[in-house]
Amino acid sequence: xxxxxxxxxxxxxxxxxxxxxxxxxxxxxxxxxxxxxxxxxxxxxxxxxxxxxxxxxxxxxxxxxxxxxxxxxxxxxxxxxxxxxxxxxxxxxxxxxxxxxxxxxxxxxxxxxxxxx
Length: 117
Fold this sequence. Notes:
6-stranded mixed β-sheet
C-alpha cells in the first residue's frame, strides 16, 4: 500500500465512523515530517477517542502499526503517527484553535470525495 493509499484508507475509516470535515493534505513537497496529513473532527471527546481507536485498530489489521500516539488522554486532539502519514483527530474547538488546515495550506489537498460518505 502506498502512502497515498494509506492516507485514503485512514480517511475512509474515519468517514465510516462518522468523522467530520476530513481532509487529506499532501505535504511531502513542503515538509520532511511526513508525506500526508489526515485531519478530522469528532463531535465529542468520546467520539475523538473512538475515532483514533478505530483508525489504530483497522490499520493494525492491515499490517500498519502506529509508530507514536500523542494526546490520547486529552480527548480534544489525538495525533497518530504512521511515519509517512500523520493523523490528527480533533474536537471542533481544538481544530478551530490550532487551525492546521490553514497552517498546511501550502500543501496539496487530496480529493477524497469518492471514498468518504
